[in-house]
Design goal:
alpha/beta; 9 helices; 5 strands; 40% helix
Length: 225
């Protein structure tokens, strides 16, 4: 199924309405996984034409996605990655962990962006960042699509490295997301140090349910950042 290529429309709008000179696209991967970090990429692309085939990373075949990520790292003006670990996710909750990872990525850029295009409906960044949220921004915005591909390939490679330590879990194939192999390994072996222990999958594993950690409530997350 063909997809419309992403454009710089939102970036041009931000430049015109806010005076922003440096605009970063931000996207995350790993939000729904049972294991591994949540990873955020911030990418600055300017207004140049992107490499052919750029779109949401989930719509690109794995081999092509890896090739495209390599091309993008040389094509973007700048990019940086930020992570929040499973422990940080458990302690802070996902929204605060996403913000932590995104701030780490944004602060890793050589120049602080004047504005940020954030994929999705929810602004998990907030002040002092100037944010424009865009639903399906990873398909429609060049900078967000670039961030999507780079983040996905980087995190998949990280999870593949963890597979060497924990072969039974199939991290090289499922990237820490739910799968029959992953669930079977959890039932037999229990969570690894890379698992999120506040996730509900532990409710279905009586042998390991005692390891579950309570998720922080909204009141506990207020004032974290």
């Amino acid at each position: 199924m063909p997809y419309e290529p992403p454009t710089h429309r939102v970036e041009r709008s931000l430049r015109a309405t806010t005076g922003a000179k440096v605009v970063a696209g931000v996207d995350e991967v790993g939000r729904g996984a049972w294991a591994g970090p949540v990873t955020v990429c911030a990418a600055v692309t300017g207004l140049r034409r992107p490499p052919e085939g750029l779109t949401d990373s989930k719509l690109i075949a794995p081999a092509r996605r890896t090739e495209l990520a390599e091309a993008l790292t040389g094509w973007v003006t700048a990019h940086a990655l930020g992570h929040a670990s499973p422990l940080e996710i458990d302690e802070l909750g996902m929204t605060a962990a996403l913000r932590l990872a995104a701030v780490r990525a944004l602060e890793g850029l050589p120049v602080r962006p004047d504005a940020v295009i954030l994929d999705g409906r929810h602004d998990y960044l907030g002040p002092p960042w100037t944010v424009r949220t865009v639903v399906k921004g990873d398909q429609s915005c060049v900078a967000v699509a670039a961030a999507s591909v780079i983040a996905k390939v980087h995190r998949d490679a990280l999870m593949a490295r963890l597979a060497a330590e924990h072969a039974a879990f199939g991290f090289d194939r499922n990237a820490g997301y739910p799968s029959p192999v992953h669930r079977a390994a959890l039932a037999e072996l229990g969570p690894t140090p890379h698992h999120r222990l506040s996730w509900s999958y532990l409710d279905t594993l009586p042998r390991w349910r005692h390891m579950k950690r309570a998720r922080p409530g909204a009141a506990e997350q207020i004032g974290l950042f």
